[in-house]
């Protein structure tokens, strides 16, 4: 694995208007070549367009929208119809990035047939190019059915937010003897046809073992630097939230202070009669 981050082989440079869309084989090439790719969540057209222009290779329409956009305390309440709306918005703003959408809680667990029906809805109505599914070896039949139906699948293991109650809250997964089971889960999901495996809140050593055991690329969030890709929730990455962030989050900007300052200045100017000024008005 190369120590120097680079982007997967693609038809044109990141951020150029003529660049062709990132495809699964570009991500696989990154893994094969020891390169890296970046992934961010997105839920709306404007942010998707900004991230796309910045060269982000993969945009995730995450069920984290339940928390960051809809204000729920967990990802569980968000529906498949909600995800279709967010997916449409992101796809309309992404000209180059691969767009992956989460299958939300309750939309795939019942059967492989339910998983296929939900994924087809996200692809036909939302326009996404792939889906992400939480869970280990138990969901191998679901992944196989999805892949057989022509749906690219990113698997998600480690801490799986949809299972937070079963896991006892937000806890690191894959420590000690559990590392062997995580490697087995990842290998089974790869064998079922998953094009990538995402690991969340996993010890660095365990994530490195999983990555080394797979041919397909891995994506990490709180899983160290051995993975091919990295993903963050964009509001965390840009410092939009209040309070202390998770250990694995790096804030690349303090957007909360910027937005709050701008809103306060607007408020003061409106109340003070400064805005709108003559330059903002229309004459006869």
Automatic annotation (TrEMBL):
Signal peptide: none annotated. The keyword Transmembrane helix does not apply. The active site is at 200 (proton acceptor). InterPro entries: Pantoate_hydroxy_MeTrfase, Pyrv/PenolPyrv_kinase-like_dom, Pyrv_kinase-like_dom_sf. One of its GO terms (molecular function) is 3-methyl-2-oxobutanoate hydroxymethyltransferase activity. Homodecamer; pentamer of dimers. Its EC number is 2.1.2.11. Belongs to the PanB family. Pfam families: Pantoate_transf (PF02548). Binds 1 Mg(2+) ion per subunit. Its cofactor is Mg(2+). This is 3-methyl-2-oxobutanoate hydroxymethyltransferase. Pathway: Cofactor biosynthesis; (R)-pantothenate biosynthesis; (R)-pantoate from 3-methyl-2-oxobutanoate: step 1/2. 3-methyl-2-oxobutanoate binds at residues 63-64, 102, 132. It catalyses: (6R)-5,10-methylene-5,6,7,8-tetrahydrofolate + 3-methyl-2-oxobutanoate + H2O = 2-dehydropantoate + (6S)-5,6,7,8-tetrahydrofolate. Mg(2+) binds at residues 63, 102, 134. Coiled coil: none annotated. The gene is panB. SUPFAM superfamilies: Phosphoenolpyruvate/pyruvate domain. Keywords: Cytoplasm, Magnesium, Metal-binding, Pantothenate biosynthesis, Transferase. It is found in: Cytoplasm. Catalyzes the reversible reaction in which hydroxymethyl group from 5,10-methylenetetrahydrofolate is transferred onto alpha-ketoisovalerate to form ketopantoate.
């Amino acid at each position: 694995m190369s120590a120097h981050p680079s982007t997967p082989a693609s038809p044109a440079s990141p951020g150029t208007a003529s660049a062709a869309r990132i495809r699964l084989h570009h991500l696989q090439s990154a893994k094969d070549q020891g390169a890296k790719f970046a992934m961010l969540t997105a839920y709306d057209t404007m942010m998707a367009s900004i991230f796309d222009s910045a060269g982000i290779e993969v945009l995730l329409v995450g069920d984290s929208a339940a928390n960051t956009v809809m204000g729920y305390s967990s990802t569980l309440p968000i529906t498949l119809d909600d995800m279709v709306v967010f997916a449409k918005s992101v796809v309309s703003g992404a000209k180059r990035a691969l767009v992956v959408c989460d299958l939300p809680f309750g939309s795939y667990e019942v059967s492989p047939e339910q998983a296929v029906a939900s994924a087809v809805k996200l692809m036909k109505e939302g326009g996404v190019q792939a889906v992400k599914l939480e869970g280990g070896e138990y969901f191998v039949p679901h992944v196989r059915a999805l892949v057989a139906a022509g749906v690219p699948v990113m698997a998600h293991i480690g801490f799986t937010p949809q299972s937070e109650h079963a896991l006892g809250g937000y806890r690191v997964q894959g420590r000690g003897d559990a590392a062997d089971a995580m490697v087995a889960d990842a290998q089974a999901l790869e064998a079922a046809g998953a094009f990538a495996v995402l690991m969340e809140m996993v010890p660095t050593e365990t994530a490195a073992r999983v990555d080394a055991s797979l041919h397909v690329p891995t994506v990490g969030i709180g899983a160290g630097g051995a993975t091919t890709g990295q993903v963050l929730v964009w509001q965390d990455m840009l410092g939009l939230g209040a309070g202390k962030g998770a250990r694995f989050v790096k804030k690349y900007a303090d957007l909360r202070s910027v937005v709050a300052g701008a809103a306060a200045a607007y408020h003061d100017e409106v109340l003070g009669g400064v805005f709108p000024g003559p330059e903002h008005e229309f004459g006869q």
